[in-house]
Amino acid sequence: MGIYTQLKSQGGEIIKIPRQLFTSFSLIALTGIFFQGNSIAGIVDLGLETDWRSQRDLTSQEFSRAFVRLSRQGFMMTDIDAYPDGNRVAYSAIWQRNSDGRNWKEHRGMTSSRYNERWREYQAQGYRPLDVEAYRVGNNVRWAGIWIENRENIPWRSYRNLTSRKYGELFREKSRQDFRLIDMEAYWTPQGIRYAAIWYKNVDNIPWAQVRNMTRQRYQAEVDRRAQRGQVVIDYESYETPSGQRYAAIFAGVPGHGWNVRTNLSETQFANIWRQNRDRGMRLVDFERYNTDHGVRYAGVWAENNLRFRWQTAELVDTLVENYRTDPQNNIPGMSVAIIRNGDLVYRKGFGHADVARNRVAHGETVYNIASIAKVIGGTLAVKMEREGRLRDGTRVDFDLSRNTRDYLEAIPARGSGGDLFFSLPEHHTHTLEDIVSHRACITHYRTSPVVWDSRTNGVGTVRTQVLPVGVEELETHFQTAVQSAVTFWDQPLVTFTDTTFTRGPGGNITSSVSQPFACSVGTNWRYSTAAFTLLGAAMEVAADRSIIRLVNEEIADQYGLQSMRVRYTTDELPYNYERSLKYNGQNNRLIEFKDNSWKVLGGGIEASAVDVARFGWKILDGEIVSDTDRNGRLFNNLPRSNYGIAWRVETDRAGRNIAQHGGSATGARTHLRLYTNDDLVIAIMSNKKDPGTCDVGSLSDSIADAILGPRASLTDCAGNPVP
Description:
- The chain is α+β, with helices and mostly antiparallel strands.
- The chain has 3 domains: 4-304, no CATH class; 311-389 and 566-724, Beta-lactamase (3-Layer(aba) Sandwich); 396-544, no CATH class.
- The chain has 15 helices and 37 strands.
- It has a 7-stranded antiparallel sheet, sandwiched between helices.
- Helix 6 runs antiparallel to helix 15.
- The radius of gyration is 30 Å and the shape is elongated.
């Protein structure tokens, strides 16, 4: 973007506004927020980033629950919107982190007289109004309001029930007295349109203006005209009049920040733009829902929330990912990418659609099946349990990866037997848990077949043959525990393989090949296995005396704030503000149903967003989940006769950089997590289709790393096309 910021108007065009560089005290002049030199005179010190939340179209009960939850989490409400929705009242709200512990109050459903009582009460207690909202309930007007502690003693005034004429008189009077309008409300009454307004002393001499009674066309023209002068919308209002829908807006000159203003959006359009702006590092600061002849419409004002997302490499990464997604060999409906550098989330973005039919875009926090990335979560948790010897709640565990798997999986009571029938892992399973996590246990890849993949390297190259029957991994049985799942297949013999030899003809061409079966030797032969990680999960369950579902959710997701990461199945409710991506398959992107992956939780039965997968990776690099010693000496230390440490594949990329990684591939999912261990770089890639083409997701990670770390001279996308 250079020295310009982008302001997108309601029509979708991009408007460039000359901008200044950020300073540590550059501050968005929102409703009730000011800056005075080097001291903040407002709600909170925003700095470069504000932790925020928003909800919309909540019932009264949902709003109450959200209020309790977010208040307890240290957020304060900065904007409330209430509106009739059929025979009920719906609510929307914007919250931000209450970082300075400021006292605040919020009330809704008030009559005019009750509002006056609250107004006088809080004025006497040293509060100032922040937001006022009027809405219709039948033929009556009800009020909602937010008040905050006036620590800065900012002079203020507020008025309600103003006619258009009286509002105009007060506007001129307060402007002459150097007050600035920070919130206005236009609302219906049986006597006609009335206005409410909140004024603060303009202590920072911010240039501002307010225009009302605009048609949509006039509003559009006003936004465009003032954007060219460096003024942006900080408060927006839509209201019905006998002459039709009218618009009002407060404009302010706020240098150094990017803004995005959109109106007349459908619910789906608003949801898509909300997520796209969040990925761009913008936050919602004003919201409006209103009725039109074409149905319910939404409007929003977003402000740039941090500096990191104006990253000079972002557009280059955009090109690499989009080229990968749309390559004819891939043709992937939706993808999400998150990048962390030196602990900062420098990039998060969605591409395409999480749900094509409903036009729901993919975004940074879209939830995908992370496929085999689940294995590194399982391996990391195993090392954590082994080293710490206790769980988060203090429960002691005796867990040792060097022990034989059978030590944990013996005398397992059968379901419904009342303790009269027991299962034990058969004696032909001689592997240790370390053999499992390094893929040296000789266990079938999937639970229904003893013969799966053959990968043999010879003088000609690497030949990979699939002998797994198509679709056998799609099981319908639901398992509450890993033990229940494992018991159903551990009587199967250890896997066998085919060793393929080749004969070269003239010119080096292959003229014939011979395949011959051979037995896998535990601890000696490397063969990739998903089912083996079911046994790992079963052993962890026995050691901890709780399900693997609970272990992953409590010991990893909850403990480290990875809100979207969960062991979940088809009908489970997702965490608040997250959405699942649908799954697609084939060149024609056929929609497929969710499959129950409860039989392979640590092998591929975990869901998460790209952002949370990247955060998990960074917490590994940063030594938060396991110590630096255990990370380097255990997780990233390749075991004998394997290029795996504890579940992590440890090697170098095409540029010779040291990496620890794991990819994932399943029906309706292709994923990749790569940690650049010497460069403090984490790249997480999620998609909702198993790509069938030659453009491998690992090569996309290579290209992204080249864009960030260099060299860029010969940068190409996954198809080998040069990228400028």
